[in-house]
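Lab notebook, bench 4. Still working through the backlog of constructs that have no structural model yet. Next entry is a single chain of 148 residues. Request: give me the structure tokens for it.
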Amino acid sequence: MVPDLPAAVLDLVAATVALCLAVGVGTVAHEGCHAAVLSLGGVPYDVEWLPARDGATLLRAGALGTWAAVTPRRLPDDTSPWLLRVAALSPLALAAPVALVAAGALPDPTAAGEPALVAATLGWFACALPSPRDFSLVWYAERAIAAA
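Model written out:
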């Protein structure tokens, strides 16, 4: 059976829009998780969107560069490395809905087979994953404190 072409195109467009929206909102939530933990720990911070563009266009920086960064302004002398580790891994909390689906507490949004819902779910879950920079801070928190 050949799918109805206009319906397939509409599904593709809807999935693309849903993915972009989920990644956009998820990126804000990801950085908000970092900021919330730092704030609770009494560490002042700055949030920068599309940092270090180095003369690149906005499109190139967004496609190939860092989308956002939460950077402590200064670390208090008594800052625990564990505060930085928890802040770095805090976006994993965004995966809670996926964990609840796996536990059977929530219905599986991908089971319906709606492309837009599947794309939005994948986009949100992707934002729950810590970045390589986040993992670096987990392993080298003491160095980050010493360098501050």
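Notes after review: The beta strands are 45-49, 68-72. The chain has one domain: 5-43+78-147. Flag for follow-up if needed.
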